[in-house]
C-alpha cells in the first residue's frame, strides 16, 4: 500500500486532536446500513466499467471498501483514494489494507495533478461541499479516459426532502439553537453559501454537460434516517459547521444530538425521517 501527500492545502481539521477527529469524523454516520445501501447501489452500476478507479473524497473508506470488494472478485484493478483530510485517510488506511489501493492526500480541485488517467471516478457524499462545481467536474473529466464514467451521489441537494419532512430540519436547528442560547452561546443563521452548496438534479445535469460529459442520468433513492443516524450525522464536523456556523464544535454537536428526538416530535414524525439521495452517472465522449 502506497501513500502520497500531494497537496499543500491541509484543511483546518488537520490541526485538531486525534481524539476530536475520531469523535467528529464521518465514520459513525457511515456505519448505518442505509448508507452502505445507497453507495453500493451506485458502485454496482460502475464497478465493471474498468480497472482503474478514483474514489474521490474517500473519507473513512466505506466506498473504497465496496470498490475493492468488486476488484478482488475480478483479481485485478487499482483504486486511487483521494481526500484532503489526513485523519480520514488514516481511518481509510486502517479499514482498507490492500496493495490495490493508493491513498493520496489532496483536493478535488487539483485532481488532475494527483492521479493518472482512469476509467471511473466515484465521488460519494461530497460534491455538495464543493464551491466551484464546474471547475471540479472539469478536473474529473480531465482524468477520465474517453468513454470513462463519473458516478456521484449526495443527499444535500435541492429536492432532498420528501413532502412533509422539511419541517423536521427547521425544528432541529431551532431546538439546537434554543439549547445553545440557554447555555449562553449565540447562533448565527446558517447561510447555504458559507456552508453547503445545494443545487437541483437538473442543475447538476447542466453542470456535467458544461464540463463536457454526455449521457447524464440520475435517480432519487429514498431512505429512512433513524434518530440514531441523525444524532451521528450531527456529530460530523463538516455538518456541525454547516448547520451551526461559528458555533464551537463540541457544544454544537451536543446541541444537534439532543435536539433530534424533540424535533421529530415537534414535526409529528415517528420512527425515522425519509430523505432522498441523488444518484448521478455521466460519461465522457467515447
Ligand atoms: C461525507 S464524507 C464522504 C466520504 C465517502 N466518500 C463516503 O461516502 O463515505 C466527505 C468527505 O469529503 C472530503 N472533502 C471535503 N472537501 C473536499 C474537497 N474539496 N476535495 C475532496 N474531498 C473533500 C472530506 O474530507 C470528507 O472526507
Largest sheet: 8 strands, mixed
Name the ligand types: S-adenosylmethionine
Q: Reading side by side through the largest sheet, how are the strands ordered?
A: 1-4-3-2-5-6-8-7
Alpha-carbon distance between the termini? 32 Å
Q: Assign the CATH topology of the domain at 2-161 and 196-224 and 274-284.
A: Rossmann fold
Fraction of residues in H or I helices: 40-55%
Strand tally is 8
Question: What is the typical, i.e. mean, pLDDT?
Answer: 91
Name of the CATH architecture of the domain at 2-161 and 196-224 and 274-284: 3-Layer(aba) Sandwich
CATH homologous superfamily placement of the domain at 2-161 and 196-224 and 274-284 = Vaccinia Virus protein VP39
Please give the radius of gyration in angstroms.
19 Å
Count of individual helical segments: 12
- Topology as H/E string? EHHHEHEHEHEHEHHEHHHE
Tell me the structural class. Answer: alpha/beta
**Large-scale geometry:** globular
Question: How much strand?
Answer: 15-25%
CATH class of the domain at 2-161 and 196-224 and 274-284: Alpha Beta
Uncertain spans: 5-15
